[in-house]
Amino acid sequence: MARLQSARLAGIAVLAGVLMLAGCGSGNPVSRATAGLSGAKERGRSGSRIVRGGGRRGAESAVATRTVPALIVPRGGPSKSVQVPVLTYHRVAPLSAVGITDLKVEPVNFAAELGALQAGGYHTVSQAQLFDALYKGAKLPAKPVIISVDDGYVDDIRTILPDLKRFHMLATFFVITGRMTAPGFLSARQIRQLDRAGMDVGDHTAHHVDLRLLTATELRSETAGSKRVLEGVLGHPVYSFAYPFGAYNDNVVAAVRAAGFTMAYSTAAGTTESTRAPLTMPRVHVGRAQTPSGIVSLLGGA
User: Fold this and answer.
1) Which CATH architecture has domain 2-298?
2) Which of 43, 65, 88, 206 could disulfide-link to 178, CB 3.0 to 4.6 Å?
């Protein structure tokens, strides 16, 4: 049974590699993944940290140097909504022959978009700030916005982080833990570098597959298992999650909740984040054709 399970997961990993070449939001993941599987058969007062190694080859031992707020949903929490657009990027890189064009934003455009947000009076906020606004009634800055970046490409550290620092902005990076030794993706050391720079790092599963198609054991591995790996790398708890392809169902959401995530994001369009659906929060896709002025208009204008 263990061998069959390993073989199936290996097949999923190979399939994920093919899908990643196309990009996080490409095509119909259900039909492609089904075929593949059948063939394979800030910053709050109270915080916490973990001191342990990454628990996997290529993940260097992590000693916690940063304490993060404990984002634990209170019993009988309030029913509250806030308007906080969550922008979604994937790659900030020049156009190439590989991958979906719309998922690659030119570096010069990305910097200009950050500049437009700043000029428009927008303020980037952290996951902890959003959590506190939802569950504790904390006040957000004027025109709050979250910048999220999916998949964990090396663009995150080479291009995106320097631009964020230049504009004094924050972002949430959702990384794929099974790709920390893959070419073109963030290593464990680079993931820690993002974290130590004050950025939020969330989980995007181990192998970036459609979670709806997995067995219960595989689903736990891609959610709770991936969370443990990332926490080992960072040295502190991880509370945020993003669904590959934005795909989920009741079983997937239940697994994400059981893993200990308290905020999870889909690819559904919207700008209202709510305690009524904290594990299926919407985001706003930013594609290659978007312009700096277009982003400001998309968020309601300056």
Assistant:
1) Alpha-Beta Barrel (3.20)
2) 206
